[in-house]
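Bumping with the actual sequence this time:
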Amino acid sequence: MTDAIMQLGRRNAVDHIDLNFGCPAPKVTRRGGGAAVPLKKNLLREIVNAAVKTASSFGIPVTCKFRMGLNDDLLTHIHTGLICQEAGVAAIALHARTAEQHYAPFARWEAIAELKSAVTQIPVLGNGDIWEASDAREMMRQTRCDGVVIGRGCLGKPWLFRDMVAMFNGDEIPATPKLGWVLDVMLRHAIALEAHFPPGRGIREFRKHAGWYLTGYPVGGDLRRQFGEISSIENLRQLIDQCDHDASIVEGGERFVRGHHNGPINIVLPHGFLESLDDLVAPDDATLTHMSGG
């Protein structure tokens, strides 16, 4: 990990580094990575200290994101936050669910308030169930957290950030855009992915995003299916032409869940993991490079 940070620092390739200790994916936790790491306080401290020390030599701030713990019997968010604070982390973010809970409703904002009360020297950010700008304001009011982190709430809904900027600036929150505006963003997104990835891969990556963009809008099932099977930018343009660009989102459509919504899940740990929580056995390097969102 420190070698990777040094390479990024020498290339001046990043503005900050975020350590994700929130991933609940079995392929990660079964090797002791992701949401399992905070259970090992000594290992967590070593990882965070090493990252901060290496990154700080290049002037790169380090942030950390984590969950409440593996389950309700193995909560780790308070000591994780304190370890991060002691190590010199610039800010921490708590996804207010356990790994076992996965993405099942609802995020438990009271855990963010607990963390904010315990960690007083660095910013504490909240994450979980922010679907509209008003949710961010309400989370900050209830928990007194310093800011928010957006996950699934912005999938196919990039105007959420526009709305939050307006709200925090004291301006009127704009109306949810018509479908035509969303379709224009979809096309730009798909073109950008095609330019970034090898030929053909970008449009395949975009298929899942198409469904998220259309969520809440009155688009027929057959047309939705075709959007999920697009094979080229030209194909995407043809489907866009078949849509009603003046269509508005349905009532409550902003709050329709995008992305993962399953849970609870079974947590898989390495054999004997819970009997050796004081050791410094690190997750496989291969696992660390494949952490998904927490």
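The tokens above came from a reply further down the thread. The beta strands are 17-21, 62-67, 91-95, 124-127, 147-149.
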